[in-house]
Specification:
Blueprint lengths: L1 H25 L1 H21 L7 E7 L4 H11 L4 E6 L2 H9 L5 E5 L3 H7 L6 E4 L4 H26 L21 H32 L1 H6 L5 H30 L8 H26 L2 H18 L12 H6 L4 H15 L3 H30 L1
Parallel strand pairs: 1-2, 1-3
Antiparallel strand pairs: 3-4
Helix pairs in contact: 1-9, 2-7, 2-9, 7-9, 7-10, 7-11, 7-13, 9-10, 10-11, 10-13, 10-14, 13-14
Length: 378
């Protein structure tokens, strides 16, 4: 008898998976969200969004041109970060910056070279457009770095002592090219999987209620666990397919290094997909309306994953209360794993605690789904 029940349960589960798979194949929007949306978002963020400051328009105010000031300007021109524009008066440079023609000003006064040769100190005036605070800080740092590099070379050529008895040798770990794309694209995997997992499953139960097919399912011998698993399994496979497509584009299209183990990445992605699917299914069970479920899924899952996960905005720079709030966002833990596996490798001190947090969240949300579904469906 028990063997017959197990066999029937197995058949019912396969039947539910087949039913939901056919529903996915007949719904072009599900395929579009799983495979077309990741491509669009990757192309948009990979090529259109950059946190790098390149080709910054810098106005050079050189009141008395000579070989030294020309050498400094040439050092800036050789950099990939600057596009120098020469002005002869500070007033014209300030007017150009008000009109957004330049992003910053480097001002060398008429006695600059004289004071530099005499060792009495040759100050350079730096004015930066602070409308975009982040861009302003980056531009200021680039200008100071270029000036220090030129000053070091100038001292070496003339055999002059360094201003400081310390030689700074800086190295950039994990992202030596300092490309924001290498930072953004791995985090984008979490945002895309949140959309695929939560948004699609947020509609599945609500769609059954709207179409009146839920009543038909309720009168069948199918158990609630079989119903839930039958709805989760196809979307899990769909979501993991979207993840594989995203990772393939990240590595081969955008040249983002994958320094860690692909199996570790796959396991962490499966954990996060379970969390996203459970959240979406819970929303769908509670809402019973596709439009409401879709809106709630975007507000509760996508926006927090985009803003509070560390995908773009540094969590340590947020207010303390918001930092505590980010611990409730599953994408926070997955983004930390993604950035570590892609850029640093298998750093278990980072991977294991975040994976444990995802496993705990998956368990909690799946238990909530089972409890709410039991109350409403059985």
């Amino acid at each position: 008898m028990s063997a017959t029940k197990a066999q029937l349960s197995h058949r019912r589960l396969i039947g539910m998976v087949r039913k939901e798979s056919l529903q996915i194949l007949r719904d072009p929007s599900s395929i579009a969200i799983a495979f077309i949306l990741p491509v669009v978002m990757l192309l948009l963020f990979g090529y259109g969004v950059s946190l790098d400051a390149k080709d910054v328009r810098i106005g050079f105010v050189i009141e008395t041109p000579d070989s030294v000031t020309s050498d400094i300007r040439a050092a800036f021109a050789q950099s990939d970060y600057f596009v120098p524009v020469t002005f002869h008066t500070i007033q014209k440079a300030e007017q150009a910056m008000r009109q957004r023609e330049i992003d910053g000003i480097v001002w060398m006064q008429s006695d600059f070279s004289h004071r530099l040769h005499n060792g009495s100190g040759a100050p350079i005036g730096v004015i930066v457009n602070g409308v975009d605070a982040n861009q302003a800080r980056i531009t200021e740092g680039y200008i100071l770095g270029a000036w220090q590099t030129w000053l070091t070379h100038y001292s070496e050529r003339r055999g002059l002592p360094q201003a400081f008895p310390i030689a700074l040798e800086q190295r950039v770990w994990f992202n030596p090219a300092v490309r924001s794309r290498d930072f953004l694209v791995p985090g984008l995997v979490a945002v895309i999987m949140t959309l695929i997992g939560a948004l699609l499953t947020a509609l599945v139960v609500a769609r059954e209620w709207e179409r009146g097919t839920m009543e038909a399912l309720l009168v069948t011998p199918i158990h609630i666990r079989e119903l839930l698993m039958g709805k989760l399994i196809p979307y899990f496979i769909l979501g993991m397919g979207g993840m594989l497509l995203t990772v393939a584009m990240a590595v081969w299209q955008f040249d983002v290094p994958l320094r860690g183990s692909f199996l570790v990445l796959l396991a962490a992605s499966a954990l996060f997909m379970l969390v996203a699917l459970a959240m979406g299914l819970l929303i769908s069970i509670v809402a019973k309306n596709q439009f409401v479920a879709g809106q709630v899924a975007i507000i509760v899952t996508f926006l927090p994953a985009f803003i509070l996960s560390g995908f773009i905005f540094d969590i340590n720079s947020m207010p303390t209360a918001i930092q505590w709030l980010t611990h409730l966002i599953p994408a926070r833990y997955f983004v930390a794993i993604l950035q570590t596996v892609f850029l640093a490798g298998n750093v278990w001190a980072v991977i294991l605690p975040n994976a444990a947090a995802l496993a705990l969240m998956a368990f909690i949300f799946l238990m909530l789904v089972r409890r709410k579904a039991g109350k409403r469906l059985e």
